[in-house]
Design goal:
Largest sheet of chain B: 5 strands, mixed
Number of domains of chain B: 2
Number of domains of chain A: 1
Helix content of chain A: 10-25%
Strand content of chain B: 25-35%
CATH class of chain A: Mainly Beta
Oligomer: heterodimer
Helix content of chain B: 10-25%
Number of strands of chain B: 10
CATH topology of the largest domain in chain B: Immunoglobulin-like
CATH class of the largest domain in chain B: Mainly Beta
Strand content of chain A: 35-45%
Number of helices of chain B: 3
Number of strands of chain A: 12
Radius of gyration of chain A: 22 Å
Distance between the termini of chain B: 77 Å
Order of helices and strands of chain A: HHEEEEEEEEEEEE
Distance between the termini of chain A: 76 Å
Chain lengths: 195, 191
């Protein structure tokens, strides 16, 4: 009886270990970002930054002024401009990563086509002094409906919070397609009122 | 279910198995400590953890030099209206330093002077547009490293901040450097 019992124990152990191996969360997931979910127009709290996504605009062209020169960027996709209000929670900090995550899971980092425009540098944030900051993304037109805006203080947060805000409020037509302006001017002051 | 191991007649073997199990209680925490020691040490070197309080008007030895907090003053001249966020006030913290050990490049590494309010929120130095340049010889903590200094030399160190107007009265400066962390200096406001 005894050898049979031992064999049973070993078999059971193999089954349990195999089940654990197959169902375990991946290490990357276990130590990944800690999401802080939210909606537009409400304040989302992360460990280092409080943020509110106020407005999202779409346009065919992006205009701005750099070194005294007017510049216009065109795109075969769509410019998406997310207007946020950011403030540090407990200590002066910066925001290194903002991403537009499309409904099919495509990740769009903040565009680097604008170059060294001061308003597009990683913003310095201080506690108690909220700032309006715009993030510009170059996306595909079908990545608008059901998209998510994510923001974190570090490039790839590990075991640190990351804000994830559902983009659910933007100007659109009755069929759900976004209203796309001809041009968006980054040189103009941040718009205050929303939709 | 009965395991063959449980019925081992050898008493000494059973005793040692029990001792090994008990030893795990010590060995596992020890292994965790050995593995994470350098990370924990690095964390302590990067963050201000243990405050050393300095009374108003007193000086304290830190990073090989004597630091004295002189004043925290609010700046109003030279600012264009609308250039700063509303409710934000520029303030300048001034220190008098008597250089002790002139090896500033090593001792003052990762020097950061921050302002802390009563609830523990902290502000790092900021660049404020339109502010007049400091007088000749006045440097920030980091630029003093490159300006250098000999033993016994006295220098003025100033840092500029942008803080909300409602906390100006309760701000206290702190100084942290890699060579001295996890200890950092926390100054009381002069009366």
């Amino acid at each position: 009886m005894r050898p049979l019992g031992n064999i049973l124990v070993v078999c059971l152990a193999v089954i349990v270990l195999y089940a654990m191996q197959q169902t375990k969360p991946h290490y990357e997931d276990l130590t990944g970002p800690i999401p802080a979910y939210g909606k537009m127009h409400e304040t989302v709290h992360t460990r280092l930054v409080d943020l509110r996504l106020d407005q999202v605009d779409f346009s065919r062209e992006l205009a701005f002024t750099q070194y005294g020169q007017r510049k216009t960027l065109t795109t075969s996709g769509l410019w998406a401009v997310a207007t946020t209000e950011l403030a540090a929670t407990t200590a002066s900090t910066t925001v290194a990563a903002a991403t537009w995550v499309g409904p099919t899971g495509l990740h769009y980092e903040k565009t680097d086509r604008i170059g060294t425009l001061s308003s597009q540098m990683p913003p310095m944030l201080d506690p108690g002094m909220p700032r309006k900051v715009r993030f510009v993304f170059e996306i595909l037109p079908d990545q608008v409906n059901g998209a998510t805006f994510t923001l974190s203080s570090r490039m790839a947060p590990r075991l640190d919070s990351e804000a994830r805000i559902a983009i659910d409020d933007f100007r659109k037509f009755n069929d759900g397609q976004p209203l796309i302006a001809d041009s968006y001017d980054l040189a103009k002051p941040v718009p205050v009122s929303g939709n | 279910m009965t395991l063959a191991l449980d019925e081992t007649p050898d008493l000494s073997e059973r005793r040692w198995r029990r001792r090994s199990l008990w030893a795990l209680m010590l060995l596992i925490p020890l292994a965790l400590f050995v593995v994470s020691y350098s990370d924990v040490k690095e964390m302590g070197k990067s963050n201000n953890v243990v405050p050393i309080d300095v009374a108003a008007g007193q000086s304290a030895r830190y990073g090989g030099s004597d630091w004295q907090f002189i004043e925290l003053r609010t700046v109003t001249e030279g600012l264009k209206p609308g250039a700063l966020p509303k409710n934000a006030v520029p303030v300048i913290a001034r220190f008098m330093v008597e250089i002790g050990d002139p090896d500033l490049k090593n001792l003052w590494l990762m020097c950061s002077i921050r302002l802390v309010d009563a609830t523990g929120r902290s502000w790092s130095p900021a660049s404020v547009p339109g502010l007049p340049r400091p007088a000749e010889g006045i440097e920030t903590c980091t630029s003093t490293i490159f300006a250098g200094g000999s033993q016994g030399m006295r220098r003025v160190v100033e840092e500029t901040y942008l803080v909300p107007a409602n906390v100006v009265g309760e701000l206290r400066p702190t100084i942290g450097m890699r060579s001295e962390r996890p200890y950092y200096l926390r100054f009381a406001r002069p009366q």
